[in-house]
Amino acid sequence: ERDAVGPMYSLGHREDADALLPAAHTASTTRLSHYTFPIHAGRVYGHVQCSNLMYQVFNNMTLVVQFLVNMFSMVDSYFSNIHVGYTMFLLSIYNERDPVNLNDYRVPGGSAFNYYRRTFYNRYRLASSTVLNRDIPHEGTFEPIQYGLCNGSNLLFVAYMNRHYVFLSTIAANEIMRNYGMQYDVDDCTCFRRATCIMDRLPLITDRFSNCSIGHLANIGFSPDVGRCIFTAFGEPMNKSLTHVRCGNNVVDEGEQCDCGSLKQCSVSDCCTTNCHFTKGSVCDKGSCCTNCTFSALGTLCRPVKNICDLPEYCTSTSQNCPDDFYLQDGTPCSQVSHCYLGNCTDRNIHCKEIFGPDAMDASNDCYNVNLEKTRFGHCSRAADLVFYEPCTLANKMCGRLQCINVTRLPPLQEHVSFHQSVSGMGTLCFGLDEHRAMGATDVGRVRPGTLCAPGTICINSRCSGAVEDLNYDCTPEKCHHRGVCNNNRNCHCHLGWDPPVCLNRGSGGSVDSGSPPKKMRKMRETSLSLLYVRVVCGRIYAFLAAVLFGVATNYRSIPTTAVKSQTAPEPF
């Protein structure tokens, strides 16, 4: 009911134009789904503080923790709609007394703000901190500092006021995104299938950001110095013992046999119950080596070969997990001019064909001059949390972005990835892919590590600095008796029909690392006798059809007909 959870009064609000970023004119667009917008993926690592008055509402540490976890789990679910996440990295509950007056919600300058800066921000440098008070301030009277996320002006206040945590989560999401830099929604902003939006000045219960908010988020994502910390990963979260181990988080923690996730997910699981224990008779729940709640048979293929430098893995019948991913030893030849490195073939021609199709080829050195620039289409490196690029030196330009020629078709690219066409100084049409912050996808457009960049030299960390001889490739044909190859553990992976570890005796193949295929396999034999039977049967069918057609043709009867012609009689004299 609106009167039960809505604001007690309304405030007039009119916001000036954004002084830092260009205006995003997205309010006039229709109700597009948020999935149609390319967003820079990030994560807010936050700090949550619970005042002593708020603690007294529950007067129980477990109940308070559950309330806060539920509240900010909802915030995380709202943020996931715009490809941003929220992690409760640090949790402070004042169960005895408040360290300072937490009702002083001035930012900056208040006692709570000064305590936060001195005690928490200077030590942990988290993106955001939210104080949950019992009575004040109402969201209509507290204004977060815009563009304050990550820079110390990131203290926020939410008042409980006997409201449900779902409603409070909407208010918290509103304040965090306002602190990040989002504008408040205006009258012509719309949400996807929702009547209200999170960035309303006084939000109601909702779970969607508007088209205006998505436009603002895109602008902020391209800004070099705003909210950089959400693109930087932190270490292990604090308060892990209270918040991390939970049945229902879809992660098998200590003391759990399985974890099927939410109640809805567990309702369709035959192997795991809602209390994180196996059902009767089950020994596994998930994993590529779990079949019908039991371990898959020995030798079941669980990870097929992905490319020419990869190796297959097989189930061991003792675990639901597939063995680690193994690949050919670094330095194994994969073409006439290249070798395998970290499970990939470093042939530039093969790389171009994978992206742009079978006609594409590696470009000439002239095309790689684009890497001397510092754009998303041509560079050597970029810090994870920055939008600025580091150009390649002349010696390293072959280790930047891959350049291809002879492109005759549009490539099927991932979401949020684009390609470009440039003209080299020699007039060659050069093609490549872009890279930018928080793509949320594998960067397939960079030159792969281990690729040759000069005679005897390979690319390492986008620098032409590695030596081929440092790979120490020692897998001679005699090592595996001409019946196998070497994996990245320098062990033999035997061909089908030969037993590991050295492929000397008859067996099923595989290796001691990735397992072996089943020893008993069905065989199919071809004989000329079966083909003869098919020919005889087909010949008889053809002869029968020919006889039927001949009989119909010979029994066809001719019926005589009389032709009548009309003529005009001559007139009498």
From TrEMBL:
Gene3D superfamilies: Collagenase (Catalytic Domain), Disintegrin domain. One of its GO terms (molecular function) is metalloendopeptidase activity. Its main location: membrane. InterPro entries: ADAM_Cys-rich, Disintegrin_CS, Disintegrin_dom, Disintegrin_dom_sf, EGF, MetalloPept_cat_dom_sf, Peptidase_M12B. GO terms for biological process: male gonad development; proteolysis. It is a single-pass membrane protein. Residues 471-504 form the EGF-like domain. Residues 244-330 form the Disintegrin domain. It is found in: Membrane. The chain crosses the membrane at residues 529-553. Keywords: Disulfide bond, EGF-like domain, Membrane, Transmembrane, Transmembrane helix. Disulfide bonds join 302-322, 494-503. GO terms for cellular component: external side of plasma membrane; sperm head plasma membrane. Residues 42-220 form the Peptidase M12B domain. It comes from the Eukaryota. The active site is at 175. PANTHER family: A DISINTEGRIN AND METALLOPEPTIDASE DOMAIN 6-RELATED, ADAM A DISINTEGRIN AND METALLOPROTEASE DOMAIN. This is Uncharacterized protein. It comes from Otolemur garnettii (Small-eared galago).
